[in-house]
Description:
This protein is an alpha+beta fold and 345 residues long. It is 61% helix and 14% strand.
Amino acid sequence: xxxxxxxxxxxxxxxxxxxxxxxxxxxxxxxxxxxxxxxxxxxxxxxxxxxxxxxxxxxxxxxxxxxxxxxxxxxxxxxxxxxxxxxxxxxxxxxxxxxxxxxxxxxxxxxxxxxxxxxxxxxxxxxxxxxxxxxxxxxxxxxxxxxxxxxxxxxxxxxxxxxxxxxxxxxxxxxxxxxxxxxxxxxxxxxxxxxxxxxxxxxxxxxxxxxxxxxxxxxxxxxxxxxxxxxxxxxxxxxxxxxxxxxxxxxxxxxxxxxxxxxxxxxxxxxxxxxxxxxxxxxxxxxxxxxxxxxxxxxxxxxxxxxxxxxxxxxxxxxxxxxxxxxxxxxxxxxxxxxxxxxxx
Length: 345
């Protein structure tokens, strides 16, 4: 999906260059009116006033971007309106001091008049602030619209992947074979295993809405781990500590399972396979760590049967949580470690 032309970077830069070119050229556009038919010799401070205008516009340029990138996000967006008014008054005061300094440098034979400064500069200052604020609001609105479109596209793109491959066919095949063996033995483990598999499939098919409760996501993970524990038995050491938080949190569905799938996919091939899964929530921060042993020369790479893969999970995390998450994937000695932290609402 191509982005609209007005969201392209070169368009934004061109508009800014055009805007400030017109501002800086404004005194030269008015040159015939300022001359009023008089020869330049009758205007001894002609060049001085132009230098003063250019210097003043440089200060206004700084105020424009300081307001857009500092004052509005740090004060207006945080509803610190009194601080914002104080910041604008400070910017106006700085403009006054610099204007007086430039006047003394470039203009000779004239006395600086503060009231003249306000008469000529206050309307222009207000125009710069309004233009800067409008620029910031429009910029944020366009970026938010783009993010929403990306989220919608990502959700549509991954919805089918959730249904087809979140639990790999290889895993389902082995679980069903294991249950056939339990049925032949008339084992008491058959019924609870079927219940876990049923709940796992029900969650995948019917409960993966836009957001789900963290408790249901944890229960889904636990069912998956229990079935894998039953499948591998004593051949794989599995440690799982999934703490259900006291508060009701929500999370994007099927966000954690790829890490667990990856651990069982790549961490069960050695004689001393070990998988450790930990999940906890404290002060609205979810900590999720998955560790699995790997052989010395074993590459850790995804294939087409292991869910949506860690690379796609990283993209989903970036789109859905942005700076509210951190993901660290490392391989140390014979351990592959994925550590995820998410700030929950």
